[in-house]
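Extended Data, panel c. Modelled sequence:
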Amino acid sequence: MHVTDLRGIDVFQQRVKRRLDRCFEAEVQSYSEWCTRLNGPRYMTVIYAPLQPRLEQVEAALVIYHDLTDHELAAEALRHAQAQLAHMNRVTAMGQLAASIAHEVNQPIAAAITNAQAALRWLGARTPDLEEVRQALDRIVTEANRAGDVISRSHGLIQKAPPRKENLEINNAIREIIDLTHGETVKHGVSVQTQLAEDLPLVAGDRVQLQQVVLNLFINPTEAMGQMNGGPRELLISTSKNDSGSVLVAVADSGPGLALTNVEQIFDTFYTTKPSGLGMGLSICHSIIEAHEGRLWATANVPQGTIFQFTLPTACPCR
């Protein structure tokens, strides 16, 4: 039978022929896609392999179809479940920060009200000072934008949206999390320091998911150090480019630290050292970094505490 008898002339001309032509030029061709079949949509992986018993020419093409529909549906269900868990983890984390976020929003609102009252006083004077009024109005705009930024960052982390890969500056994403968690670190008496390398290459990833990782790595040590009776409470976040060309992010704390036997176990699902913890945060972070083709690990800090580090591959210049 001719291929057109099996697949139809349109499919043959539009999709099969060019792959067969390349196959008969001794090139292996392969692709995966959803296809319409009589029994419904199927996810197929197709391989065109040249059969070349004699080196001078290809005599036939071996075409192998793998029906991976069940596998793809299971993988899609797993991705959906992971996205649901990641969203739940973000909402839980933002719930923990609710009081601090409210404080961060209330500050610029209170400042805007103060400046508005000052502007009204300058306008109500016997000789209105328009320059003072203009400056007060400028400060109101600044404070309103500041409050809007806090709300925007909070909304971005809480909203439920499918992962989206984009080229982003990891330093900017980190600064937003530092601003968002400012009230929480102050409440626990934690001093936050940064060493963010300049001229870092862009990374390819989902901004919300990567910020979720940084958020988790901030909240966990902040809460742990908040329960310490003495000693320094310091959090240092740094970025750099490692020897392999990837971007390296490190979060070092001076907290109680981790038992060396638990370093790998802390990334297991449902493992937690916190009395009220679900044991999902670090596991989800580990999955997010792996999905971004990076690596997340933990080591002991000196003289005390823990260092969490993760790598991210740089963005493709062609993006």
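The two ends are 44 Å apart (CA to CA). This feature is highlighted in the accompanying rendering.
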